[in-house]
Amino acid sequence: MVSIKDVAKAAGVSVTTVSRVMNNRGYIGKETRKKVENAMRELDYQPNQIARALLKNQSFVIGIIVPDLSHPLFSELINWIEAYASEKDYKLLVCNSLQNAEKETNYISMLRKNRVDGIIMCSHNLDVEEYRNVAMPIVSFDRILSSTIPYVASDNYRGGEVATNHLIEKGCNKLLHISGPLDYELLPNRRSDAFQLTCMKSGIDCKIIQGAHVKATFEDNWNFIDREIASHLTDYDGIFCSNDFMAYTLYVYASKKGIKVPEQLKIIGYDYHSFTRMLRNPSLTTIKQPLDRIGKRLSSLLINQIEDNDLDRNNTVFDVELIQGDTT
Amino acid sequence: MVSIKDVAKAAGVSVTTVSRVMNNRGYIGKETRKKVENAMRELDYQPNQIARALLKNQSFVIGIIVPDLSHPLFSELINWIEAYASEKDYKLLVCNSLQNAEKETNYISMLRKNRVDGIIMCSHNLDVEEYRNVAMPIVSFDRILSSTIPYVASDNYRGGEVATNHLIEKGCNKLLHISGPLDYELLPNRRSDAFQLTCMKSGIDCKIIQGAHVKATFEDNWNFIDREIASHLTDYDGIFCSNDFMAYTLYVYASKKGIKVPEQLKIIGYDYHSFTRMLRNPSLTTIKQPLDRIGKRLSSLLINQIEDNDLDRNNTVFDVELIQGDTT
Fold first, then answer.
1. Which of B95-99, B126-130, B290-294 reaches the highest mean pLDDT?
2. For chain A, which residues make up each domain, given as ranges?
3. B53 contact A CB<8A
4. Which stretches of chain A score pLDDT less than 70?
5. DSSP secondary structure string for all residues of B268-326
6. What is the pLDDT of residues B194-242, one digit of tens each?
7. Looking at the predicted structure, is the pLDDT value of residue B51 above 70?
8. Which residues of B touch A2 (CB under 8 A)?
């Protein structure tokens, strides 16, 4: 490995001079600077960032914990988080909790040991207290952790309201909602609150059935529908699913059972991630979360905290959008 | 921040003893170990991994460069790479080249500066020489970089052969292949070689049209088909697409133009990532790459190199599998 001494020798200057050039400190003549820079280039000298990180007590690494790296919702978020972070010269360390509380605890501890500059929490399998004790910059996606930890989310309540009103406007009289799992107090639960309240206001019969966790294959979803939803299918004429995978599987299930979508049954989903954007035959009616803006905001909020600057550090709730597809 | 001295004081032992417990070195009585461990727990002591990394000259961080973090092929690969790496206590730093040669160069340089222990290259926008000069452990997905840099791939030639033979067995007489971009010498190009040779052997008329890069939305694919493929559509009765997104878009396009799939036109794809596994109406006929095994292997090959152990470091080519769907 090439050292700073080798660079100094090749450039015919002192180590202090090389260090000054590298750190842009003190007066350095143009010629000297050029000599040093040429030597660095020729020797392919890579200054040791780990040593620098120790010195500055900053690693320029952000940790992100998600429940499933391969889920399009999270891979898109990571994509946008990385895009913004890399503009600001931060790197992204990814951790996959697999919805497992122990793994999540271990990752938080690992990230602290590695002195990342901050953590973006997109996985939520622990009690709120455990995140409060993390004692480093942290931002959260879709969950309120404390008044001092900012969160970013789409307007989940509004999303539930828009979805429900859309089904009512399309003429549905009896509505079913397949929610996400409601065991933690997460912001997406507001979708279910909005569903219930909107139905009540309109005097519409409704029911909520709690769905499964985010990691769901087609077969998992199919079996869930077969077990929990099938017997209700003919009783309802509109179903609001809290994620697009469930909405899609439900469409396929209903079609196979001879129920015509959207004539007899209208289906609306939630997310509009890469799967949904690619999908045709049918295209799904759904609620779009602006994953690009959410990802960039998670990144910028965390970096603002880390750099302790005067920029905005407020919770951010992004507007959602109805995407009209073939299923309503 | 709690230091090793604080732990020693709380446990009533010397700093050397704490260090021994932490590093599992030298003889430590059971009682003493317990005292130290309790003190570490009570004080919530997090050993500084950055300092350790400097000491051991190892960071336990692996860098991975992909062309698109949000593409399901790469997000699944990352998922499996992380799963294996985390078992071995390595962390994953993700970099998104966005198919941009300059970004790729910058990332390689950044990873070297941060002294990652090795790099998994899944993005291929530079000339082979640039990777050879990296001078740290490196493994490659889908590309031969040098005789000393191991690669992992599915059997691309066999995949092309199986796909082509499948179309011929299903009765196709004139075959079209939409390949990936052939501007770099990548292993997936073998799919096109196999297509051509298999058609020649069977005396089947064939044509290859070069497709676009991996980042392709439905609209991009649709426009490409409209521009490059549409005028050929009725001349061919079987099309082998080098990725599932293209195959799916082609199915939608052909259907809209009144061409019946699979009766008039048979379509086969390649990849079988999460999008394809979720898809019904139609399910795609495709060639499955075992992304779980590829990801784990990329991880283990790199770690074997890093740890300089006696374990296997050979190039690995995994078998592919025909998935029969509705499009052939």
1. B290-294
2. 4-47, 56-154+292-317, 156-290
3. yes
4. 1, 23-26, 46-57, 213-215
5. E-SB--HHHHH--SSPPBEEE--HHHHHHHHHHHHHHHHTT-SS----EEE--EEE--S
6. 999 999 999 999 999 998 765 678 999 999 999 999 999 999 999 999 9
7. no
8. none
Q: What is the pLDDT of residue B44?
A: 74
Cα–Cα–Cα angle for A118, A120, A124, rounded to 5 degrees: 130
CB of A55 closer than 8 Å to CB of B66: no
Among the residue ranges A13-22, B172-181, B241-250, the one predicted with the least confidence is: A13-22
Helix (H, G, I), strand (E, B) or coil at A141: strand
Domain B57-154+292-318 is classified in which CATH homologous superfamily? Answer: Response regulator (3.40.50.2300)
- Dump pLDDT digits (tens) for A131-187: 877 888 999 999 988 888 899 999 999 999 999 999 999 999 999 999 988 888 899
Q: Classify domain A156-290 by CATH number.
A: 3.40.50.2300
- Which CATH number fits the domain A56-154+292-317, given the four candidates 3.40.1280.10, 3.40.50.2300, 3.30.1490.190, 3.20.20.370? 3.40.50.2300
Residue A97 touches chain B, beta carbons under 8 Å = no
CA distance readout (Å), B165 to A174, B239, B291: 51, 12, 23
Q: What was the pLDDT predicted at B134?
A: 80
B145-161 in b/e form (b: 16+ CB < 10 A) is beeebbbbbbbbbbbbb
**Which homologous superfamily does the CATH classification assign to the domain defined by B4-47?**
lambda repressor-like DNA-binding domains (1.10.260.40)
Hey, how many other C-beta atoms are within 10 angstroms of the C-beta on B9?
15
User: Which residues from chain A sit within 8 angstroms of residue B95, using beta carbons?
Assistant: 82, 86, 91
User: CA–CA distance from A260 to each of A209, A219, A252 (Å)?
Assistant: 22, 21, 10
Instruction: Write out the DSSP string of A223-248.
Output: HHIIIIIGGGGGG-SEEEESSHHHHH
> Does the fold of domain A156-290 match that of domain A56-154+292-317?
yes
**Residue B55: predicted pLDDT:** 55
Q: What is the pLDDT of residue A308?
A: 80
Q: Is the pLDDT reported for residue B53 higher than 60?
A: no
| CB-CB under 8 Å, B46 with A113 | yes
| Residue A8 parent element (H or E) | helix A4-11
Q: Which residues contact A128 (CB under 8 A, 6 or more apart)?
A: A145, A146, A185
In a 3-state reduction of DSSP, which class is residue B131? helix
Q: Are B115 and B89 in contact (CB under 8 A)?
A: no
Alpha-carbon torsion angle A244, A249, A252, A254, nearest 10: -100
The alpha carbon of residue A188 and the mean position of all alpha carbons in its chain are separated, in whole angstroms, by: 13
For residues B291 and A67, what is the distance between their CA atoms, to the nearest angstrom? 19
Interchain pair B277, A48: CB under 8 A: no
